[in-house]
Amino acid sequence: MPFTPYHLGPGLFIGLLFLNFIDFPTFLIASVIIDIEPFCVLFFNLNYPLHGFFHSFLGGTIIALVLTVIMTKIREYFTPPMIFFKIEQEISFKKILFASLLGIYIHILLDSPIYTDIRPFFPLDFNPFYRSTSSTGSLETMICVWCFLAALIVYIIRLIIYTIKNRRKNHTSDENNNLFQNKLSLKSKASFSFRILVNGVSNLLCSVAWIFSMSDSASYNNNIQRKS
User: Fold this and answer.
1) How far apart are CA 209 and CA 226, in angstroms?
2) pLDDT tens digits for 159-202?
3) Closest Cα partner for 69 from 95, 27, 97, 107?
4) Exposed (0-12), middle (13-18) or buried (19+): which is 129, by Cβ within 10 Å?
5) What is the distance between the alpha carbons of residues 31 and 36, in angstroms, rounded to a whole number?
6) Residues of the chain with pLDDT under 70
7) How many other CB atoms sit within 10 Å of the CB of residue 91?
8) The whole model's pTM is what?
9) CA 8, CA 29: separation in Å to the nearest integer?
């Protein structure tokens, strides 16, 4: 039967497969959080069903809403590990809410065919999903195990896609930098040529002015000599 860690299989697989629509860390937590109920029953030896109110859709919805509020407050602290594993997401209240509800509902659906004490449609006192067979829970356990393997495949594919996109992005960035450097180089060359042209024209004008001034000076001296 799907012991609590097995529920992480569907959580990982569905969370990675629909990463654009589901808040991943919230979905993982939601996949296992309602098993706090049987843990408390066993730990405190309570006179209460192992899978009681919170393993119903009504009780699960209450837990999902509480989880949504909590995750909205602390979701940013999960960003560094998400970046490390190359599965970073934008934080969204809608994604967190959807992940909370979906993770808990899937947990209830996986447990309902196995345990007689679950009442998924509480307060209605029946479980339409229960299957009384000699291999109770084997199918659900295999689903969880196969989901672990499927999640690994999906993650590898995502890493490959991420690497390809990152290389293309870096290549485009390098091309843009080279284009920018070429433009700067052309501008620098044009500016340098313009400065040479201005200096040349300025020197030419100075030379012409000097020639004219020398010519005027020679004419003035000739006139003085004639008068003398």
Assistant:
1) 26
2) 999 999 888 877 676 566 666 666 656 666 566 556 665 566 56
3) 97
4) middle
5) 11
6) 1-3, 134, 136, 171, 173-228
7) 14
8) 0.74
9) 9
